[in-house]
Amino acid sequence: MTTWIMQVPVIRSAHLSMRTTKALVEGLYDAALIAPYPQGMFIWLGFADPITGLPRDLKLLIKWARQHKIKWVRLDADAEISIDLPTYPWS
């Protein structure tokens, strides 16, 4: 049996607003599957098609992931900021 190795981009949590992040954790959007941890979350973005009815920040993250042909993203408070995505204040 071969071992499957997965590579996941890690970007700053601030690429989603606090409001959208809270809604994802509360299960309000079926567009993504999440695995939260204290400093962020792993998020699977393969559900949302079409991406209507979602907040703008989540739509932009999904579009970014599709452009890079990825389904999993790790959002982390200490990660680098992607120049391709806007950031949102968390204070």
Please provide the count of β strands: 4
> Hey, roughly how much beta strand do the residues contain?
15-25%
Shape: globular
What is the first-to-last residue Cα distance? 48 Å
Global Rg: 13 Å
- The proportion of residues forming helix, as a percent range, comes to 10-25%
- Main sheet record: 4 strands, mixed
The whole-number mean of residue pLDDT values reads 90
**Integer count of domains:** 1
Structural class, from secondary structure content? alpha+beta
Strand order of the largest sheet: 1-4-3-2
Count of DSSP H/I helices: 2
Polypeptide structure, described:
The protein has one domain (10-76). Helix content is 22%, strand content 20%. It has two helices and four strands. It has helices spanning 18-25, 56-67, and strands at residues 10-12, 33-37, 40-44, 72-76. A hairpin with a 2-residue loop joins strand 2 and strand 3 (40-44). The longest helix is centred in the C-terminal third of the chain and has 12 residues, at 56-67.
Keywords:
22% helix, 2 helices, 91 residues, 4 strands, 4-stranded mixed beta sheet, alpha+beta
